[in-house]
Specification:
88 residues, mainly alpha, 4 helices, 81% helix
């Protein structure tokens, strides 16, 4: 779907009478929180790929820092999703 199509769909959803907009926005953010760890993991893997990145690929300490960032951010994102779903 194109950007214009998504904008049009968003506009239609926003004017539906009786739709709880705040709950919808929270639901969208929960989905984003679930997808973030997957995206980060694959971006991290791509940054380590020698065929793709050549001499600029992540190695050594930088790779360990990137891995720690991916896992910490993913853990925090999943914790926020769990807190939101459980209502804590």
């Amino acid at each position: 779907m194109t950007a214009s199509g998504l904008e049009g769909l968003s506009g239609i959803v926003a004017v539906v009478p009786g739709l709880p907009v705040i709950s919808l926005l929270i639901g969208v953010q929960v989905v984003n929180g679930l997808l973030l760890p997957i995206n980060l993991f694959f971006i991290w893997r791509l940054s380590r790929n020698e065929e793709l990145m050549g001499e600029r690929r992540n190695r050594g300490v930088l790779d360990l820092l990137a891995a720690a960032t991916v896992f910490l951010t993913s853990g925090l994102s999943l914790a926020l999703v769990a807190i939101t779903i459980l209502g804590l």
